[in-house]
Automatic annotation (TrEMBL), chain A:
Domain F-box: 9-50
Matching SUPFAM superfamilies: F-box domain, RNI-like
GO CC terms in record: nucleus; SCF ubiquitin ligase complex
Name recorded for this polypeptide: Protein TRANSPORT INHIBITOR RESPONSE 1 isoform X1
Major location category of this protein: nucleus
Pathway entry: Protein modification; protein ubiquitination
One Pfam assignment: F-box_5
Keywords: Auxin signaling pathway, Developmental protein, Nucleus, Ubl conjugation pathway
Automatic annotation (TrEMBL), chain B:
PROSITE patterns: PB1
Database matches in SUPFAM superfamilies: CAD & PB1 domains
Job of this protein: Aux/IAA proteins are short-lived transcriptional factors that function as repressors of early auxin response genes at low auxin concentrations.
Compartments, as annotated in UniProt: Nucleus
Name of the protein in its database record: Auxin-responsive protein
Residue ranges, annotated region (Disordered): 55-75
Length: 589, 253
């Protein structure tokens, strides 16, 4: 009886129920229940997230999900951010746009990360999708202001244009003027990555003027401090604002104008930008500090005393602030102040002001992070660059913050041991994975042996992403991770003595992960070929810019290796320095 | 595994080893599930047969066990045969392509030996100027830092970087390279090159120019004053010190 009832729901009812299910994981589970649910679900899926653009082909996505309105794609591996992936590697979006142009006329949202986007792609987007609303190009490259002009001119209902951290070819600042006078729909605009010549300020002002729903605006560095007031007065409804330059000679009228403009923004909760800060202008922010939940000062060379003043002059700042990104000029003392004031802090990122200097230029050590861990029990996400660390500090941090979900520690000098005992930092990181049971992302640094990987394999059951550099002694380390970390999706390794054994012994594990990157390790060409041959569900790619890997003995290690699961087979757009180990593809170029 | 650990850890989970015969690819036994990942995997499995690419790709999947599930294989399958309904679907949980022994690495093929041989070149790739991509700070952040006029930067900072990352100031040794007729610029690491020969070889490879066509291209560069010059007209040292970006142009005549 019960069984029959279940199958007698009309499709429309199921469709309606499914429309409440937004998460991809849940949708995937739904699609597995039975044939009819699979069918109904695939017709009503509107949003698709593809974590690796080479894992599946556009045609496959279109065939399964015919009614998509929003797509998110990621291209290059994460290490591309640090110049480890050579230019021309891939991640081109054009083919995706071309296929979707035909299949998804109602596509409204495209979000891309680490992809190569040409002006041609942007022009195609502009003319293909009549209802285009959201374009996010996060850390992308390959396009110029000409492409942006096409988007601005054609997308009549554009809501969101976010170019954060992208590299844009500077041709002309007049693209902003291409937004027609009838365009009043902008909600979010992030042009912080643009250079000096790429923005016409008057066009920007007019645009801000006519978009009453603008909630998020990030200006670029070229916009000077005196112009901020003009913008803010035109958009007092802003929730999220990124200043341009925050430096100018102190002039009372400019200051009071600025302070007044900030105070008129009653909804402002998040601030960023602050290139070239003149501390005298910081008090202009005091009126909004009590409301701030997010503050990004990671470009601001604001010294510790100025930061302490900022924090302490705003008595209620402490309660609302939960994300702060600062350069390490903040020093231990600044972090200690932060720890005592901002009890709700959830995310802390401290970037190095002088990453290549040999001697520490500021007094920022592990103490700052320990202080924050002690004072901010809600801390979930840490990115911390420093020059020394100890196991004791890490154990303390682990015990103080069991809710950590992301922990990325970068001790600037590779293989730095515990500065107190000169031991490896195995025990410290071991404590992190042991105590922080929900840890999803971990980046290691310092002197580390195979032991740390044993801890990670034993305790890191929820770990999804692991970044490793200059660590470990032998294949045993890699074996611990691959055999122990059940939730592992992304593993990126550089300069570690990991070779063939662990990789081959855990080959099947790779099919359960999104991707594996290994560079400057000891994996042989022969092993890569074997993996490529025996694992059809994986794309095994060897990257070598100096010479073809088969011009050397098979036992010779490859320079860089990128392995990812894919149902699309080997890709077609490999540059000459990328070799696919798939049998179906000629290895010799 | 005989590791003496300082902290009290539970004994490491025993990893049962099974023999694996490369010749009989499909004769492995499955183990307990690797968690729920087996379920999320089918997102990428498509019921009906896939396009030609996959047929080529999986042409040898008929020799593997039923666990290869979603691979379209050599025949078109109707939806009913799609993998999610196959109770006995075996996901290769611990497919070994190598028998994991608990023996310490053999001296002969110790991969770390190979690494040591190369480690000096790997670690000091930039001729002692620093590691590539370390510390892991994003490129645009490096740009920002070295445009900071005040603060402790003076001891390390050279004249401010312009819009590219070609300036030595950033200690990054990458410069932009464009080829005539190609819209997308590339970047090349200058520090690994010590002569025009080496640089040209790399560029030819980068842009896929065969040896035969090499002669029809000339290498030009833009110097700090903004002038475009022929690379071969100046000595290597002058070239390296003054160049801002590169361009390959087709030589006429």
């Amino acid at each position: 009886m019960q069984k029959e009832m279940a199958y007698s729901f009309p499709d429309e009812v199921l469709k309606h129920v499914f429309s409440f299910i937004q998460s991809d994981k849940d949708r995937n589970a739904v699609s597995l229940v039975c044939k009819s649910w699979y069918e109904i679900e695939r017709w009503c899926r509107r949003k698709v997230f593809i974590g690796n653009c080479y894992a599946v082909s556009p045609r496959m996505v279109i065939r399964r999900f015919p009614e998509v309105r929003s797509i998110e794609l990621k291209g290059k591996p994460h290490f591309a951010d640090f110049n480890l992936v050579p230019d021309g590697w891939g991640g081109y979006v054009l083919q995706w746009i071309a296929e979707m142009a035909g299949a998804y006329p109602w596509l409204g949202e495209i979000r891309l990360k680490r992809m190569v986007v040409t002006d041609e792609s942007l022009e195609l987007i502009a003319k293909s999708f009549k209802n285009f609303k959201v374009l996010v190009l996060f850390s992308c490259e390959g396009f110029s202001t000409d492409g942006l002009a096409a988007i601005a001119a054609s997308c009549k209902n554009l809501r969101e244009l976010d170019l954060r951290e992208s590299e844009v070819d500077d041709l002309s600042g007049h693209w902003l003027a291409q937004f027609p006078e009838t365009c009043t729909s902008l909600v979010s605009l992030n042009i912080s990555c643009l250079g000096s010549d790429e923005v016409s300020f008057s066009a920007l002002e007019r645009l801000v003027d006519r978009c009453p729903n603008l909630r998020s605006l990030q200006l670029n560095r070229a916009v000077t401090l005196d112009k901020i007031a003009n913008i803010l007065r035109r958009a007092p409804q802003l929730v999220d604002f990124g200043t341009g330059n925050y430096a100018a000679e102190l002039q009372p009228d400019v200051f009071s104008n600025l302070a007044g403009a900030f105070s008129s923004c009653k909804e402002l909760k998040s601030l960023s930008g602050f290139w070239d800060v003149v501390p005298a202008y910081l008090p202009a922010l005091y009126s909004i500090c009590p409301r701030l939940t997010s503050l990004n000062l990671s470009y601001a060379t604001i010294q510790s005393p100025d930061l302490i003043k900022l924090v302490s002059h705003c008595p209620r700042l402490q309660r609302l602030l939960f994300l702060i990104q600062v350069l390490d000029y903040v020093e231990d003392s600044g972090l200690e102040e932060l720890a005592s004031s901002c009890k709700d802090l959830q995310e802390l990122r401290v970037f190095p002001s002088d990453p290549f200097g040999v001697e520490p230029n500021v007094s920022l050590t592990e103490q700052g992070l320990v202080a924050v861990s002690l004072g901010c029990p809600k801390l979930q996400s840490v990115l911390y660059f420093c020059r020394r660390m100890s196991n004791a500090a890490l154990v303390t941090i682990a015990q103080n913050c069991p809710n950590l979900t992301r922990f990325r520690l970068c001790i600037i000098e590779p293989k730095t041991p515990d500065y107190l005992t000169l031991d490896p930092l195995d025990a410290g990181f071991g404590a992190i994975v042991e105590h922080c049971k929900d840890l999803r992302r971990l980046s290691l640094s310092g002197l580390l042996t195979d032991h740390v990987f044993e801890y990670i394999g034993t305790y890191g059951k929820k770990l999804e992403m692991l970044s490793v550099a200059f660590a470990g002694d032998s294949d045993l380390g890699l074996h611990h991770v691959l055999s122990g970390c059940e939730s592992l999706r992304k593993l990126e390794i550089r300069d570690c003595p990991f070779g063939d054994k662990a990789l081959l012994a855990n080959a099947a594990k790779l099919e359960t992960m999104r991707s594996l990157w290994m560079s400057s390790c000891a994996v042989s060409f022969g092993a890569c070929k074997l993996l490529g041959q025996k694992m059809p569900k994986l794309n095994v790619e060897v990257i070598d810019e100096t010479e073809p890997p088969d011009s050397r003995p098979e036992s010779y290690p490859v320079d860089k290796l990128y392995i990812y699961k894919s149902v699309a087979g080997p890709r077609f757009d490999m540059p000459p320095f990328v070799w696919s180990m798939d049998e179906a593809v000629k290895i010799l170029h | 595994m005989e590791l003496q650990l300082g902290l009290a850890l539970p004994p490491p989970p025993l990893i049962p080893i099974e023999t694996f015969d490369l010749n009989s690819y499909g004769n492995y036994e499955t183990r307990e599930a690797l968690g729920t990942n087996a379920l999320s995997w089918p997102l990428l499995k498509l019921g009906p047969a896939d396009n030609d690419i996959n047929n080529i790709h999986h042409h040898n999947s008929s020799s593997s066990s039923s666990s290869s599930g979603g691979g379209a294989g050599c025949k078109k399958r109707s939806f009913d045969e799609a993998p999610f309904f196959d109770e006995k679907r075996n996901v290769p949980k611990t497919l070994h392509l190598l028998l994991w022994t608990n023996q310490p690495n053999d001296e002969d093929d110790d991969p770390s030996n190979v690494l040591h041989e190369n480690s000096s070149s790997a670690i000091f790739k930039n001729d002692g100027e620093g590691l590539v991509g370390w510390p892991p700070v994003k490129t645009w952040r490096k740009k920002v830092h070295h445009q900071i006029p005040n603060g402790g930067a003076e001891n390390n900072c050279l004249p401010a970087v312009e819009n590219g990352i070609g300036g030595r100031a950033s200690k990054s040794t990458y410069v932009k390279v464009k080829m005539e007729g190609v819209p997308i610029a590339r970047k090349i690491d200058l520090s690994v090159h010590h002569s025009f020969e080496g640089l040209t070889n790399t560029l030819m490879r980068m842009f896929g120019i065969s040896d035969g066509n090499r002669k029809s291209f000339k290498l030009t560069y833009q110097d700090r004053e903004g002038d475009w010059l022929l690379a071969e007209d100046v000595p290597w040292r002058t070239f390296i010190r003054s160049l801002k970006c590169l361009k390959l142009i087709r030589s006429r005549g």
